[in-house]
Design goal:
It holds the Pfam family WD40. It comes from Reticulomyxa filosa. This is NB-ARC domain-containing protein. The protein contains two helices and 63 strands. It is mainly beta. It starts with 36 loop residues before the first strand and ends in a 5-residue tail after the last helix.
Length: 742
């Protein structure tokens, strides 16, 4: 009866263990789709669920057992939507392949293919008795089809642009459609004649619904408004305003009294249907809300977002009840099971998941949640660590104990060169200087009018360099807090700045695709280096200051002469964005990493590629070199950190344990330890059994000394479950899916 909720079980050996009544807090994924899962639809009695994917298949699952019942194959391009018939015996699907298909749910057979649309079919719906289907398309038309013959019965024309969706009225006597032509049209379902044209929206009308009583129509548009219309007169009754970005969908509450809307502005909003008044704003998601649904009793809402989380909300208070984490991409579908105790979700990470919310609520961890940790750095003497999270906190940690010492505000941070101060920068466009011992704010630096992306200390520790989305670079005096230099020249946001080894110059790179070199004392631009044809990711000086290296989304690395500005070398070989590139300490070689999952070593004199280091199974975000250049430390989207021998190109160590992409790594100044942070919301301190982490060999044992933060999801990679007793078949499947072996 042990609870393994959000536990790290990596490499744990459970051989011969008794596992009766184990609770994992997660269920096995519904396995089958080989590409992005675009949506899910429950059958009317909620005993089955249909999922559809970019792999062009529809799969039907049994909700009680999670078993796959059948696979519906036939579409040749992306599926736009699926819907069950009212008796649950058939499914209608529509696709980018221009067809509408009707399927038998029990056998999985394709009964009819309805062909006639000239472009993508955007929506399709059964009539009440399943004798007809209405469909809409990007070919500007709506078509009514006879189900038994598969023939087109009516062609409804009138829209002058793509028709986004179509729907029968509750009594099936009317049809409503909306279009990119900004209009909404009401049609007679039997004759196909247009009854009303509803005009008022000032941009694409994305979606439209009849109210449950059929008397009104609710529409939402790219003009960020929701509107209520009278069906008989065609008059606009109300405009519901509040969302500040595109609205992605609306839902009626089960009793028909409320409207739920969700938007690219990261919020969900509840409205009173009759008065049009906004009742609640549900805030918590950190990115656009893609989907949301009411529970069957209307007391709860589940939402899915681009921030990879699913959130559960209480309707009466508007408060967030739970956050469900585990998906690694945008959530495209959510829904409650019939008893409202479980939630089904699907995502662009190709998975469909089941969540037990009744039990998870009881054991949601309290405290210790650090948010997603974006960066970690050691202090100069290696005794402290500073971390920054997406919850806009900067935290100071004691290396010895892993204890939190201070919390500051900000979205980025850096230690001063003497380690006595922490510098933070924030989304409020300010820079703050904090005293480490007291935690007091010493200075507030104001001047930037855009987000600050990077800060660096001048080599004498007297000044600070910052760069921003406002296209400027600024130098500040630390003791007075005054701005002493302003550099202008870039035409877009400046993403990175680095100081030359002699402290006289700054190199900057920008989204304007240029690299620029500036004289610190005069404030003048010395060089503008042009050649990259896409965003420049990074630029830095060589250890002797004579060269500059830059890497870009154009898949190239370029070496420039610091005095003349001439391009010396163009290095091509990576198949994807080059995310980082650095000089070796001896100035003879370069190391780079890329979204092509590789690390490459290059000869600086010939420009030839010397080694390709392969092992990572996903993007390699960043690299660090040991001080003598003998080892390379890499971090990746594949949740691992790897240590490589630079001369042989061999992987020496694989550091596993994190359950999310590795956002940052840093090595202490004495080379003894490594700190890492991840999207799994934890920070880990790593060490070796034979002294320093920079001296490890293949025979060394490297493990984490401590971790802080509440980990996201279960981690079971390389765990052993030989001859364990008491696991259910579903639990065994879960263990296998999460990387355990039997």
């Amino acid at each position: 009866h042990v609870r393994f909720y959000q536990t790290c079980l990596t490499k744990v050996n459970f051989t011969n263990a008794s596992m009766n009544g184990i609770y994992f807090g997660e269920y096995a994924n519904l396995e089958g789709h080989s590409d992005l899962v675009l949506g899910i639809q429950f059958s009317p009695d909620r005993t089955k669920v249909a999922s559809y994917s970019r792999d062009t298949t529809i799969r039907i699952w049994d909700t009680a057992s999670s078993n796959q019942l059948c696979v519906l194959k036939g579409h040749s391009d992306g599926i736009r939507g699926v819907q069950f018939s009212h008796d649950g015996s058939k499914i209608v699907s529509c696709s980018r392949d221009k067809t509408v298909r009707i399927w038998d749910v029990l056998s999985g057979q394709n009964i009819q293919i309805l062909e006639g649309h000239a472009f993508t079919v955007s929506a399709a719906q059964f009539s009440l008795d399943c004798s007809k289907i209405v469909s809409s398309s990007l070919d500007n038309t709506i078509r009514i089809w006879d189900v038994s013959s598969g023939k087109q019965v009516k062609l409804l024309e009138g829209h002058s642009n793509s028709v986004n969706t179509v729907q029968f009225s509750p009594d099936y006597s009317k049809i409503v459609s909306c279009s990119e032509d900004e209009g909404i049209r009401i049609w007679d379902a039997s004759s196909g004649t247009q009854l009303q044209l509803l005009e008022g929206h000032s941009n694409d009308v994305v979606g439209v619904h009849f109210t449950p009583d059929g008397l009104n129509i609710i529409s939402y548009s790219k003009d960020k408004t929701i509107r209520r219309w009278d069906v008989v007169s065609g008059q606009q009754i109300q405009i519901l305003e509040g969302h500040t970005e595109n609205i992605n969908g609306i839902q009626f509450s089960p009793d028909g009294s409320k409207i739920l809307s969700y938007s690219d502005d990261n919020t969900l909003r509840l409205w009173n249907l009759l008065s049009g008044k906004q009742i609640q704003v549900l805030e918590g998601h950190t990115n656009l809300v893609a989907i949301a649904r009411f529970s069957s009793d209307g007391s709860k809402i589940v939402s899915g977002s681009n921030d990879h989380t699913i959130r559960l909300w209480d309707v009466s208070s508007g408060k967030q009840i739970q956050v469900l984490e585990g998906h690694s991409s945008t959530i495209t579908g959510v829904g409650f099971f019939s008893n409202d105790h479980k939630i089904l979700s699907c995502s662009l990470d190709n998975t469909i998941r089941i969540w037990d919310i009744a039990l998870e609520k009881k054991i949601q961890l309290t405290g210790g949640d650090l948010g997603i940790i974006m960066d970690t750095k050691f202090s100069p003497n290696g005794s402290k660590i500073v971390s920054r999270s997406n919850d806009k906190t900067i935290r100071l940690w004691d290396v010895q104990s892993g204890r939190q010492i201070q919390v500051f505000e900000g979205s980025g941070a850096l230690f001063s060169l003497d380690g006595s101060k922490v510098i933070s920068y924030s989304s409020d466009k300010t820079i703050r200087i904090w005293d480490i011992l007291s935690g007091k704010q010493l200075q507030l630096l104001k001047g930037h009018s855009g987000l600050i992306y990077d800060i660096q200390f001048l080599s004498d520790n007297s000044g600070l360099v910052s760069c921003s989305g406002d296209t400027t670079i600024r130098i500040w005096n630390i003791s007075s807090g005054r701005q002493i230099q302003l550099f202008r020249g870039h035409a877009d946001g400046v993403k990175r700045v680095k100081i030359s080894p002699d402290g006289s110059k700054i190199v900057s790179c920008s989204d304007d695709r240029t690299i620029r070199v500036w004289n610190i004392s005069s404030g003048n631009q010395i060089l503008s280096l042009k050649g990259h044809i896409k965003r420049v990711r990074n630029a830095s000086f060589s250890p002797d200051g004579t060269k500059i290296i830059s890497c870009s989304d154009d898949k190239t690395i370029r070496i420039w002469d610091t005095s003349s500005g001439n391009q010396i070398l163009l290095l091509k070989g990576h198949q994807q964005f080059v995310l980082d590139a650095q000089f070796f300490p001896d100035n003879t070689k370069i190391v780079s990493c890329s979204a092509d999952n590789t690390i490459r070593i290059w000869d600086i004199f010939t420009g030839k590629q010397i080694q390709i280091l392969e092992g990572h199974s996903d993007w390699v975000f960043g690299i660090k070199l040991s001080p003598d250049g003998s080892k390379i430390f890499s971090r990746s989207e594949d949740k691992t950190i790897r240590i490589w021998d630079a001369s042989s190109g061999k992987q020496i160590q694989l550091l596993e344990g994190h359950n999310g992409a590795i956002r940052s790594i840093d090595i202490s100044s004495d080379g003894s330890k490594l700190i890492s942070s991840s999207t799994d919301k934890t920070i880990r301190l790593w060490g070796s059994d034979n002294g320093k982490i920079i001296d490890v060999t293949e025979r060394s044992s490297v493990d984490y000394i401590w971790k802080v933060g509440n980990q996201v999801g279960l981690s079971m990679k390389s765990s052993i479950w030989k001859d364990t007793k008491g696991l259910t078949p579903q639990q065994k499947l879960l263990v296998k899916q999460r990387g355990g072996t039997f």
